[in-house]
Write a structure and sequence with these properties.
- There is one protein chain.
- The chain has 291 residues and is α/β, with parallel strands linked by helices.
- It folds into 2 domains: 107 residues, no CATH class; 169 residues, Rossmann fold (3-Layer(aba) Sandwich), CATH 3.40.50.11350.
- It contains 10 helices and 11 strands.
- The strands form 3 sheets. A 6-stranded parallel beta sheet has the order 8-7-6-9-10-11, sandwiched between helices. It has a 3-stranded parallel beta sheet with strand order 2-1-4, with helices on one face. A two-stranded antiparallel sheet has the order 3-5.
- β10, α10 and β11 form a beta-alpha-beta unit.
- The chain is globular, with a radius of gyration of 19 Å.
- It starts with 6 loop residues before the first strand and ends in a 6-residue tail after the last strand.
- The model has no long low-confidence stretch (mean pLDDT 90).
Length: 291
């Protein structure tokens, strides 16, 4: 970084971590840059979300990164770029303690969703015609059972109904999930309110493989699905969710979001921001009890 004249340049080419897992790494890098008065130059180059027609850095597809100088001017000052495949490759002291509010502050200081992303979010939100509280629901299924106990569809439905019955003003429910089975089940079972979901580009119809790892389709569209859904969930009044980086980031976008959490990661998988959300006063933890 001294050779780069104060520019922290890093390229992450991970192919195993999901969209918001890698965005969480970016938050830590940005916090490090802010703490040490460095200029961030972050490139996400893994194939999962990369589109050859859009350029080598998929972070640029979705966000504008605040820079003190034009990117071409910064590029001329970079003599060394750290190459990383995994979190451990970034070295120490990356990884300072961070609250959800810290994460939100860092995010809004450095990263702004692209205008076309916000247009998609705003246009879909208007289709809900929200005239009162909206309950958001995110169910992370497929392979997540390796990191947290799986929640049954029936239990998730019961919590949604309980939340609706707490007030007479809830008439809209917004669903997001990597499993088409969950979307279909809730829409068929919940008839007392209007239920909405995006027509995502990709959603798994099986129970073992998440959309990001499906061989078909384009990387950009998978990232767009993830980011747009997280931003939509952040606009809801209450978010009922299972553990996931995607819906955890709804709290980064909106730290005041009320969360009803139905499971939590195993102790060795309890990473930020979930580690902070589970103990937040905005979170109610309602785990499914074994029969």
């Amino acid at each position: 970084m001294r050779a780069n004249r104060g520019i922290c340049s890093i390229e992450i080419a991970n192919v195993g971590a999901g969209f918001f897992a890698q965005m969480t790494w970016c938050l830590y890098l940005l916090e490090y840059c802010q703490r040490h008065n460095l200029i961030p130059d972050i490139r996400l180059a893994g194939d999962s979300y990369r589109d050859p027609n859009r350029g080598p850095n998929w972070l640029d597809y979705y966000f504008d990164l605040a820079r003190s100088s034009p990117s071409d001017e910064l590029a001329r000052g970079i003599r060394y770029t750290k190459k990383a495949l995994e979190w451990e490759d970034m070295g120490q002291p990356i990884g300072a303690a961070m609250s959800v509010e810290d994460g939100a502050r860092i995010l809004h200081c450095y990263l702004t969703p692209k205008p076309h992303i916000m247009r998609i979010v705003d246009d879909f939100w208007q289709t809900l015609n929200p005239d009162g509280p909206v309950i958001g629901v995110h169910f992370r299924g497929t392979d997540k059972s390796s990191e947290a106990p799986r929640v049954s569809l029936d239990y998730c439905l019961s919590i949604i109904k309980q939340c609706i019955n707490e007030t007479d003003t809830v008439h809209k429910v917004l669903l997001a999930s990597d499993e088409q089975k969950f979307i279909d089940f809730i829409k068929q079972s919940l008839t007392e309110v209007a239920v909405y979901s995006r027509n995502d580009h990709y959603r798994s119809r099986g129970a073992n493989e998440p959309p990001v790892f499906l061989g078909e389709g384009g990387g950009y569209e998978k990232g767009e699905d993830a980011l747009v859904n997280a931003l939509l969930l952040s606009k809801c009044t209450t978010l009922i969710r299972t553990t996931s980086f995607l819906s955890a980031w709804a709290s980064i976008f909106n730290p005041q979001l009320r969360v009803i959490l139905l499971n939590k990661p195993y102790d060795d998988k309890l990473w930020f921001p979930e580690s902070e959300i589970v103990r937040s006063p905005n979170t109610t933890y309602l785990p499914e009890r074994p029969i």
